[in-house]
Every structure is written in C-alpha cells, then in structure tokens.
Amino acid sequence: MSQRKKAVSASQNKTQRRSQLLLNESDEDATFSQITSSQVQRARENFTSDQIDRKVAEVVQFILIKDQKKIPIRRADIGKHVIKDYKHIYTDIINRVCRTFEQVFGLKLVETDPKNHIYILINKLEPIHGEPVSMRPENPKKGLLFVILSVIFMKGGVIKENLVWNTLKKLRVDPGEKHDEFGDVKKVVTDEFVRQKYLEYVKIPHTEPVEYEFRWGLRAEKEVSKLKILEFVGELFEQDPQSWTQQFREASTAGTSSQRTS
Amino acid sequence: MSDSRRRSRGSQEEPAGPSNGVGGRNRSERAAEMGEEDDIVGGPSGISEEDDDPTRRREIRSKYRDLINQVQQNREDMLNPANNKLTDVLEEANKLFANVRQAREAALDAQLLVLATDLGKEKASQLHAEGSAFDPSAFAEHLLSYMGLNRLEDESGQDGNLEGYLPQGAWQKLANRSEHCFKTAPSFHYMLGSFLAEPPPPRQRVERQRKVPGKEAKRIMPTQLKKMEESHQEATEKEVERILGCLQRYFADDSDEPISYYEFVIDPNSFSRTVENIFHTSFLIRDGLARMYLDNDNLPCIAPVEEGEVEPGGASIRHQCVISINHESWREIIDAFDIKDALIPAPEVLSQES
C-alpha cells in the first residue's frame, strides 16, 4: 500500500517537476518579450564592447555545435545557456550573430517559427554542380530523405503515408524490417526527419484506423531547392523537367520567392 | 457498366445501397457474420434451388473478397497508367456477377465497385493534370537503376518478388547526388575534438620535460664546478709548491749566486708556460716564500726566503708590482739572456721523469 503511494507521489513529483521545467522555460522566453527600451539602453551602457564581442562569439559557437544534429535551436536555450545576464541586449547580439554567420561562415540563421522563436542554420551559398559539397561524405540518410521529399513534391505537396512506405519497399527499404544502413526506418522517417523539421507527419482527421500524411517540413522549405529536385527527377526519367508543368511552375515561383526574402 | 449488367440479367434484385470504401469493410464483416444465420434460416422465396446452393454462394463471396483484397493491397500498382490491372479486375467482377443471385453477393460486388471507381477517379485525375503524370513506381525503378541495382539472371518480373540486390554504397551514391538539392549548413566539428581536454596535457608534458633536464643539469653542474675548482686549486697549489721546490733546490746548489728572475720563469720553448710560471711565482712572492730584489745591474732576481725569515702575515713592507710580458719581449729576453733551457721544468717532463 505504502509502495503504491510512493509510486504515485513519485510520478506526481515527476510531472510537477516537468511542468515546473516547462514553466521555467516559458518564463525565460516570456522575459525576452517584456524588455523595455530603457532597459535595453541601460544594458548597452553596462557592458563593454569587448564583453559584447565575446558574447556574440559564444552564441555563434553555441549555435554551430547545436546545429550538428540538425535539430532546430530554441531561443530559450540560447538565453539559458549563453546569453544569461546579457538578456536585455539580446536583439543587438542576435543581429550581430546573424551578420557574423553571413559574412564569416556563409551561413544563414533563419527563424523558422517566429511565434516560438526557433532557429535553423542553412547554407547561404548554392552548391556547385559537380563539386563535392563538404569534405566528409554525405550521410546516406540524405538519399532516403531526398526520395521522400521528391515524391511528396511531385505528387502535389501532400501524400498519404502508404505511398511513402510502398515506394520505399520498392527500393528494398521496408519500414517493418531493420535496414542495414538506416536501422529502424520508420523511426528515422517519422521521428528523426520530423524533429529536424525536414518532414511533417500529420494525422488525417476522421480516419479509422488512424492514417497519417506527409508534407514538407519548415526546414525543407528553406533548405531544399524544388527546381533542383525537378531537374534530378527529369534526369532519372530522361524527361524535360518542364514537362511536369504544374511542378515546374511551383518550383520556379518557390525559387524566386526565396530569393526575394534573402 | 453495372447498369448494363443489371439490364442483361433482368433480375429484380438490386445491389445493396452505396457505401463508402472505408465502411464497406465493416459491412462485409457484418455480412459474413449474418451469413451463418442466413444459411440456417434458408434463402428467400421465389428463388430456385440452383441459385440457393450455399457452396456456390460461398465460393462467389470468397472470390469477391479476393478481388477486393487485391485492389486494396495493390492500390499503387492499379493506379499505374502503364497497366490495365484495374480493367482486368472489373472484367473478373463481371464474370462473377453473372452468377450472383442474391443480395449478399451483390453487396460484395457493390463494395468492389466502389473501390474500383475510387481508383478509376484517381487514375483519371492523373490524365487530367497538366503536363506529365508522376508515377512513384516508375520513379523507384529509375532510382534503382541509378543506384546500380544488380538484377539477377532469372528475374521473374512479378511484382510480389523483389529480385536483385543493391550494391554497397548505393544509398551513398544517391545521397551524394541529391546533396546538390540541399542548402545544408555543413556540420561544424572542432578539428581536434573536444576543446576542454586539450590544454592540460601539453602543459604537463612541457613541465616535465623542463623539470628533468633542470634537475640533471643542477646535479651535473655542482659536481663539475666542484671538480674544476678543486683541480684548479690543486693544480695551482701543486704547481706553486713545485716551483718553490725548484727554486729552493737551485738556491741550495749555489746559494751565493743570485737567480735571475727572467732566467727562472722563462721557458724558451713555450710562451704560455712562461706566463704560467710568472703567475705561479707571484704566489710565492705573495705568500712571502720568495722574494724579489734588484741586483747591481738593476735586473730582478728571485730568492727563496729562509725559514726563519718568513714572517707570518707578511708584516714586512709590501711592495706590489705588475709584471707583463708579451711575445715580443719574451723573444727579446730569450735572446738577451741567451736562455737555452727552462729552469722550471714543464709538468709533463716531470711526469715523464717520474
């Protein structure tokens, strides 16, 4: 009896702690928005330019390391681990961080979610065809991702999950079995790629049994060139990419709109 | 299509009301349950026994269910504009329907039709769209070719069996090519790994290296220095004593004849030995063991001091002088005094003698 009570109270503590943690994090984030302009002015005067330079460098390093896993970075994390006391001049710092990324590294810090303040790092430079993109060989998972993104795009932007699984099965990748290179394929596709914001895995309402559909994620929208995908598909089919007129139109407008924002 | 069939049959039976594809599955299950009761209760009136054969009916229902399964499982394949599988299914259903007499089987027929028309609609929409359709199956085939699929010789060509295998690095090849479609930021990794672990080890190593030679050096130096000092001191003392011995011997031989200082110290064979002799002789003078004086010709002479005459502390009047000699003077003195041999034998000569 007492053991059960202990277990119950332990789980209660855990949820309490978790909710407390969430509260702290949202508090952290909330304080960002409650900063007044006079606070900013005072903060600017409080710190020397050397101190601010160092803070900017720390944020840059933090983001670079966090980006290794390609999981988007939350502003709350940046605040908690790096900015700390310099919170009031966060905007100044983050602007300089963006500039550093662009001018020093050729990368772009993009806020994929303006409401929740989540950032990703993407490459500012276009890859040159024929030349290797990075010194290290690309993760084979990129190939898997490419297949899924291509099918979604060519099929209009939304597809039922079965289409993905069936296509992968034809490529000898069975989500039900462990794959030599990818391991738990279903997990990679529905969990890893979704957390990295390459894909969206959404429940279709009113389906019984539950069915999901796949769309492009926010990171894919920013990082992936629809035009280049169409070109490669054209190569594979030995067809002119323009023969897929709807997709070509969408790829062209996507390209120009992203150019406008950058 | 179903209308023409109905007309040809001319039967008053109508298929069950339309149901959507999703619910249809449940209905067929319910129909299956009800089926047992039906058989027990018996068929409706007005139907010949031939039409009522339960075995035949079961057979028909089973075939319909097979067709329905086929359509559901191979949906993508059916959609493929490259084949007519959908039409084949409908023709099969047509044949089956010829034998359908009762509502239950007709219900299955209707369910199959709903699925087929759904697919037909999608297939039509593929044609409807501007530009080319996109077929994921064909896409997969092209990808396999690109990745270098090794097709086995006896490929059956059936869809159920996936023949052939992908070579090692097939997915890597695809990843490398598709990389160009992405503007991924390269992952940042420190070249030397974690930077926390780095600074301490080199410092320790350097310190250790520095410490070791230091200790040894210290150990070496004192001993070396000590040795040098001792030897130096010893050598000097020994030398001085030896020279004193020489001086006293010469004086003992002939105490009346004064010894010319120059003749005493100069070694006609070695300038450096001459200088050493002057140096060592100066100690004798300093310690009061020998004295120098000028003779009648104003030439310096040296003589040992008698034992009794030695005054401790040297309270006698001290005179100092500085003696210098250079190579030229040395030569001149040798010529002037005609010095043939050194009065102070060189230390090597001594050792040879002894």
Automatic annotation (TrEMBL), chain A:
Residues 1-29 are annotated as: Disordered. It comes from the Eukaryota. Residues 8-23 have a biased composition (Polar residues). Residues 52-251 form the MAGE domain. One of its GO terms (cellular component) is nucleus. SMART domains: MAGE. InterPro entries: MAGE, MAGE_WH1, MAGE_WH2, MHD_dom. Gene3D superfamilies: MAGE homology domain, winged helix WH1 motif (1.10.10.1200), MAGE homology domain, winged helix WH2 motif (1.10.10.1210). Pfam families: MAGE (PF01454). This is MAGE domain-containing protein. It comes from Culter alburnus (Topmouth culter). The lineage of its organism: Eukaryota, Metazoa, Chordata, Craniata, Vertebrata.
Automatic annotation (TrEMBL), chain B:
It is found in: Chromosome, Telomere; Nucleus. One of its GO terms (cellular component) is nucleus. Its main location: nucleus. InterPro entries: Nse4/EID (IPR027786), Nse4_C (IPR014854), Nse4_Nse3-bd (IPR029225). It comes from the Eukaryota. Residues 258-344 form the Non-structural maintenance of chromosome element 4 C-terminal domain. The keyword Nucleus applies. Pfam families: Nse4-Nse3_bdg, Nse4_C. Residues 1-58 are annotated as: Disordered. One of its GO terms (biological process) is DNA repair. The keyword DNA repair applies. Keywords: Chromosome, DNA damage, DNA recombination, DNA repair, Nucleus, Telomere. Residues 109-160 form the Nse4/EID protein Nse3/MAGE-binding domain. Component of the SMC5-SMC6 complex, that promotes sister chromatid alignment after DNA damage and facilitates double-stranded DNA breaks (DSBs) repair via homologous recombination between sister chromatids. Component of the SMC5-SMC6 complex. PANTHER family: NON-STRUCTURAL MAINTENANCE OF CHROMOSOMES ELEMENT 4. Belongs to the NSE4 family. This is Non-structural maintenance of chromosomes element 4. It comes from Culter alburnus (Topmouth culter). The lineage of its organism: Eukaryota, Metazoa, Chordata, Craniata, Vertebrata.
